[in-house]
Amino acid sequence: QKEVEQDPGPLSVPEGAIVSLNCTYSNSAFQYFMWYRQYSRKGPELLMYTYSSGNKEDGRFTAQVDKSSKYISLFIRDSQPSDSATYLCAMTPTGNQFYFGTGTSLTVIP
Amino acid sequence: NAGVTQTPKFQVLKTGQSMTLQCAQDMNHEYMSWYRQDPGMGLRLIHYSVGAGITDQGEVPNGYNVSRSTTEDFPLRLLSAAPSQTSVYFCASSYYGTRGTQYFGPGTRLLVL
């Protein structure tokens, strides 16, 4: 069983829609949770970073962590064509070893 | 700041050849890491370092060597390339205390024939 599971999509939504991206995990030791965005043929870039359970908001992006369910989410409000990318979740117990999901491909249609 | 730089951008190797993928950062980050990205597998950690002279294995270390003689550089060595090592390789760095706010390089695409 993989440490982190992520639906690969692809996900296609109209511009302005609310997007929900999710990951589940099996290791209860994970404490730090991240979402990265990766454009085609580029390196991932950090979008959101949270510690333990709870919500974090940054502009149009909201990250949620539910450690009791071992489930994390990323919500994108008012989605834009420039949000079209692959979104990767990642997590770590200590900040040394990181485990990534396989990524969800998102297309926002104008 | 150049951030995290990687060379080469693309490389073709024959089975059994050796090569070194270069990674450098100019942000004085203590933590550096190497990942490989394969379709359907996501990013997998190969090796990481928490400072000069200190390295450790990640999830998929076999076939790869690393060393960290300076804060800035973290090269990845393939001693005897195999077709299974065909992948896109990313280097990343962060301040050690930030627990995950990693900056990634642009990647090196490696094809082993």
Notable traits:
A: 110 residues, mainly beta, five-stranded antiparallel beta sheet, 0% helix, 55% strand, globular, B: 113 residues, four-stranded antiparallel beta sheet
Task: Describe the SSE topology.
The complex is a heterodimer of chains A (110) and B (113).
Chain A: E1 4-6, E2 11-14, E3 19-25, E4 32-38, E5 45-51, E6 54-58, E7 61-66, E8 71-76, E9 85-92, E10 99-100, E11 104-109
Chain B: E1 4-7, E2 10-13, E3 19-25, E4 31-38, E5 42-51, E6 54-57, E7 64-66, E8 76-78, E9 87-94, E10 103-104, E11 108-112
Parallel strand pairs in B: 2-11
Antiparallel strand pairs in B: 1-3, 3-8, 4-5, 4-9, 5-6, 7-8, 9-10, 9-11
Describe the structure.
The complex is a heterodimer of chains A (110) and B (113). Chain A is an all-beta fold. In chain A, 0% of the residues lie in helices and 55% in strands. Chain A is globular, with a radius of gyration of 13 Å. Chain B is mostly beta strands. Chain B is 0% helix and 51% strand. In chain B, strand 9 (87-94) and strand 10 form a beta hairpin. Chain B has no helices and eleven strands.
Q: What is this entry, summarized?
A:
Chain A has 110 residues and is an all-beta fold.
